[in-house]
Amino acid sequence: DADVTQTPRNRITKTGKRIMLECSQTKGHDRMYWYRQDPGLGLRLIYYSFDVKDINKGEISDGYSVSRQAQAKFSLSLESAIPNQTALYFCATSDQGRVTQYFGPGTRLLVL
Amino acid sequence: AQSVAQPEDQVNVAEGNPLTVKCTYSVSGNPYLFWYVQYPNRGLQFLLKYITGDNLVKGSYGFEAEFNKSQTSFHLKKPSALVSDSALYFCAVRAAFSGGYNKLIFGAGTRLAVHP
């Protein structure tokens, strides 16, 4: 969905490096989410945010942190990347009171 | 436990034939169910959802899904498959999480391959 953008689209980094993945949306939605996708596991929720001042841990938040800089921007950081964080990362948005989430194109991260 | 199962890793179908991608779920309360599709190098695209009402839900690209409460299933269907339908399909269900938030639980995904 072009209304949700993610940068970078691909990233290779080394163990121990700090890395930030960024998400922006023009849908005007209040809620934003970060997921990771691993083969055979579907998508798992890392963090979610209902608004700029409301950030919550998801199922697998260890090793990750987030920042909601504005309603339209939600960044995911790996403070010290490790190889098992190699995955496809998706940002998603939804409108308050609506259940459907809309996803960005994903960031493919490889940690060596 | 709250969960979604997609029992088939891959479904193969000939172009023009009907297709079914299976999904079963386990969740407390009334289920909110979703299907998403992921094309190569693309994000997940919303196909359809069931919240309440008619058990047969129609969505994008000619897809539909049938909700069956007794069988706790929400199978995705299309009467006539196209090669361009080849993609990875995810079923999801809304489930209680924490702090009043209802998260989406995703199945592992089913790869649909439509052959000419």
Number of strands of chain B: 12
How many strand elements of chain A? 11
Low-confidence blocks of residues of chain B:
none
Share of residues in helices of chain A: under 10%
Shape verdict of chain A: globular
Number of alpha- plus pi-helical segments of chain A: 0
Mean pLDDT of chain B: 92
Instruction: Give me the strand/helix succession of chain B.
Output: EEEEEEEEEEEE
- Helicity of chain B, as a percent range: under 10%
Rg result of chain A? 13 Å
The portion of residues forming beta strands of chain A comes to over 45%
Oligomer: heterodimer
The parts of chain A where pLDDT drops under 50 for at least 5 residues are: none
Largest sheet of chain B: 6 strands, mixed
User: Which sheet architecture does the biggest sheet of chain A show?
Assistant: 7 strands, mixed
Q: What percentage of amino acids of chain B are in beta strands?
A: over 45%
Q: Counting H and I runs of at least 4 residues, what is the number of helices of chain B? A: 0
Distance between the termini of chain B: 40 Å
> Largest interface, by Cβ-Cβ below 8 angstroms: which chains and how many residues each?
A-B, 23 and 26 residues
What separation lies between the terminal Cα atoms of chain A?
30 Å
Radius of gyration of chain B, rounded? Answer: 14 Å
Note down, in words, how this protein is organized.
The complex is a heterodimer of chains A (112) and B (116). Helix content of chain A is 0%, strand content 57%. Chain A is mainly β and 112 residues long. In chain A, strands 2, 4, 5, 6, 9, 10 and 11 form a seven-stranded mixed beta sheet that branches. In chain A, strand 7 (65-70) and strand 8 form a beta hairpin. With 116 residues, chain B is mainly β. In chain B, 0% of the residues lie in helices and 53% in strands. In chain B, the strands form three sheets. In chain B, strands 2, 5, 6, 10, 11 and 12 form a six-stranded mixed beta sheet that branches. A four-stranded antiparallel beta sheet of chain B has the order 3-9-8-7, with no helix packed on it. A two-stranded antiparallel ribbon of chain B has the order 1-4.
